[in-house]
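The records we work with from here on pair a chain with its fold. These numbers are not coordinates but entries in a learned vocabulary of local backbone shapes. To see the layout at work, look at the sequence and tokens printed below:
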Amino acid sequence: MNFAATPPPLPRHLRPVFSTAQALCSLGRALQQHGYAFTTVTPLTQQRVNARAESAQAHDLAGIFGWSRPFTADAVAAPLLALMREAGVVDSEQGILRATLRASALDGQLYFHSAYPTTAADAVFFGPDTSRFVRALRCALAVLEQAPLRAADIGCGAGPAAITIALAHPGAAVYALDINPSALQLTEVNAALAGAGSVRALPSDMLGGVAGLFDLIVSNPPYLLDRERRAYRHGGGALGAGMSLAVVEAAVVRLAPGGKLMLYTGVAIVGNSDPFRAAAAALLQAARFTWTYEEIDPDVFGEELDEPAYAHADRIAAVWLCATAPGAAP
């Protein structure tokens, strides 16, 4: 099997989202030892809950690392605050502190990702979509007839899909790919916290940064039309489907015989029809793939329908596409 050469290092001028990976790992382990758990909600829910009078300031770890609320030094144990400072993930202004990362629990693992609000161009998003994606992926992995030997997660973000694959199939070489250096930095830390040693976080636009064929390609690409064109959110193309179709196009030529594409994405339903499904079907049928397609959630991000780009859309649905390349797996 043809493996990729080691890619060039990230440019030095790119500012890391933390000071040292070792310090952030120590902070993550300390949070785990404290029994930390937090389920990250949608940005609108976070905004509404944080707007409550009693939410103005954090008084516990969930408030600090989950709700991204300001806090004072006496709200957190001194050793934890020292680890935050060592990792470079706390800002201070006139005695008021704020964590610059969030931490979420999913499937028993801890994931660091960007603090709320995720307004930066290089924000690393994690939320309900992540949970739906990982749940669907976990179910699909459980019924695979043959364990993958080489897998790729396109647009890995904080790394939950790559880590899920690595934990389910320890013998697989798992490539976590992203164009965002901040995502790659956090994926490396999150993989270390999960004990997923087979995950390699590499800079790559789609699959351009790695060579060879894959037994499994997964992705949860951005699928909205974002006015600010933030990388984690803006899918481009018609109604945000550009990145999702690009994943299908990449998988068609980079999957080994019998290899599988597992794609979680959001689609705009217009006039009771699904334009993304039609476009993906044409690509897959031309390549003689077999595939299944289902709506996981019929109505997500309803607030986007107020945007001019979605003036004619009925709804945005979360869907799961599973496609298999022709030919038998070796």
